[in-house]
Write a structure and sequence with these properties.
Number of helices: 6
Number of strands: 7
Shape: globular
Order of helices and strands: HEHEHEEHHEHEE
Mean pLDDT: 91
Structural class: alpha/beta
Strand content: 25-35%
Helix content: 25-40%
Length: 180
């Protein structure tokens, strides 16, 4: 085992959505970077890329893949008005009681409903966005897409689905959140 989240269908869907919306002048943050796959895809597409993860192994891998990583819990290491685009492929699966390696649980389990980590993120992300900044958030039918949209609205965001795909019995969507 590698000790960090490897890119999968969700990573690819999120990376492609961001690629279609990023500008050369943007400062980009990849929260919960895992292997650094999304940051790597943004290389040469924006002015600065920072990856972050709570997992030290993920940060080491992200540095190899994309150059700059910060080990932190969600957004607590970042200053106000720092980023034009924030992408987050969160741990979004509801806790079903199964236990895996700690790093895998951290990367995939978002609490009892699958939304707990997303809600903590949404409580703080507006602080680090520039006034015209936007968030690209991956969510699943397992998480409750409409409930995430409603929570984002309660935090002052307009949420649009900009990409989606189905895998087995699950539908994945990328929400673009713009400050209201």
């Amino acid at each position: 085992m590698n000790g960090y989240y490897l890119p999968a269908e969700d990573s690819s869907l999120l990376a492609n959505a961001v690629l279609h919306n990023i500008k050369e002048s943007d400062i980009f943050l990849d929260v919960g970077t895992g292997s650094g796959y999304i940051s790597l895809k943004m290389k040469g597409k924006c002015s600065r890329i920072i990856s972050s993860d709570i997992n030290a192994e993920a940060c080491r891998q992200a540095i190899l893949n994309s150059g700059e990583a910060v080990m932190c819990d969600l957004l607590n290491a970042f200053k106000e008005n720092s980023f034009d685009i924030v992408a987050f492929n969160p741990p979004y699966l509801p806790n079903d009681g199964k236990k895996f390696e700690k790093w895998f649980d951290l990367a995939t389990i978002g609490g009892e409903t699958g939304r707990e980590i997303i809600e903590i993120f949404l409580n703080d992300v507006k602080r680090i966005l520039t006034s015209e900044g936007s968030v690209f958030l991956l969510v699943s039918t397992e998480t409750g897409i409409q409930k995430v949209k409603e929570y984002a609205a309660s935090k002052g965001f307009l949420a649009d689905t900009i990409a989606e795909d189905s895998y087995h019995s699950e539908k994945l969507v990328v929400l673009r959140l713009i400050q209201n």
